[in-house]
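User: quick one, fold this
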Amino acid sequence: MTDAAPPIAPTKAQDLRRLVEARLKKRHAQERRFRLYGRVAILVALSFLAILLGRIITQGYSTFIDNQLAVQVYLDPARIDRADPTGANYDLLVAESALKMLGEVDDEYGEKSGKVREIMSNDLGFQLLKMVRDDPSLIGQTVTVKGPVKSDAALYFKGDIKRSTPPDSRKLDDEQLDWLDKLQASGAVTGGFNL
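Assistant:
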């Protein structure tokens, strides 16, 4: 006699096969659902990314626009010492030249030139200083400097600061807004792509 197990009856083998096939069918269905959920999750993520990028573009496109102010400045030899060109107030020279372009004259306290300096970048004065340092023979001549307007003036040109806003709720007063309009109308302020 042998201790071998009796052969499995065909009904038990068929039952086992049906169980395995049912499990496989259930497992394949789970796999299909898992793939579907993954695809839906990717689509939702891409949708949110598209919305986010759309909002960034619609709200931030104006940052790619830059407004530049060009001013012709007379480098007055009475105010610039050839021996020490760093001693002159180049920002004031630019502001007074801008006032002259606007048909205005600075008052005795320098308030108007101070208000003009609030709408133009200090970079213009630094440009003048560099030009005089590099070539002192420019003293006594008229040169053109070009640079960005200050941030509040740029916001006005982009439409973020409005005249309809009460003057005590904005940083620029009506006179400064008038000056910006005049400078833009004269072509001294130009807008372009911000590199």
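User: anything notable?
Assistant: The longest strand covers residues 65-74.
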